[in-house]
Amino acid sequence: MAIYRQIHISFWQDEFVLNLTPEEKYFYIYLMTNSKTSQCGVYQIPKKVMELETGYNRETIDKLLNRFIEYKKIEYNEETSEVNLVNWLKYNSSKSPKVISCIKKELDIIKFLPFKQYIIDSLSIDYEKTIGKNKNNNKNNKNKNNNKNNEITIENIIDVIQKEINPNINSFELQMIETWFNEWNNKEIILEAIKETALNKATSLKYTDTILRNWENQNVNSIENVNRIKANYSNFKGKKERVVETPSWMLKHQQQNKQQSDEEVNQEELKTLLNSF
Length: 277
Prior knowledge:
With about 280 residues, the protein is mainly alpha-helical. It has helices spanning about 15-20, 20-35, 45-55, 60-70, 90, 95-105, 115-125, 125-135, 135-140, 140-145, 155-165, 170-185, 185-200, 205-215, 225-240, 250-275; strands at about 40-45, 75, 80-85. The chain contains 16 helices and 3 strands.
């Protein structure tokens, strides 16, 4: 995915854009330039991420999405959280082999089949060939799809962070969360790291990131691994904090020093009292 998106200067003179409200113009540009956009114009973006990146609440996000759906500028699938920019390929398509190759790779990750078919038809890509590449992936993901309702989403993770650690997540922290989400196949491990952060009363996600990096270095890939590491740490901490009994000879020595110190203080007090007469 490119690190920038091009918008032609004629955008601002477009009749459709001229009739938009300032809020709509801002959101329309956001839909075309946000961090999840793709070369093909179809991308996945949870509404929670839209809220954090735009500063709008959920009600406003829903209102603006529905408005652009009515304008027939986008399509949005609630189940997969995917956006289809209807005219994206019309203005951004390219015959470059590199671009076509990039789009074909992006087709593999589109979950909503009507969106996938739209791109294939728009670029006249061999549908059977493209779908054929995904057959093995579909078989491998069958169990995951069966447990779809139990899948931990990035929105779930953000909600837990806002509730347990810090309600105000900045753009840097959002990128950090997205990195975790993409790197860790077992999302429960991320939640465990967040839990540890909250238990230690830390308010920075850098603390959580450090935990995850440490677990990664220890080849953690399951909750069982996490529990084992935590148990080992608890045992180590218990040994480290064990009370060591003071030897009797040291106690005797300390008592003698204290007695000698008290006697010296008494002599000084007596000398001060005599000098006062």
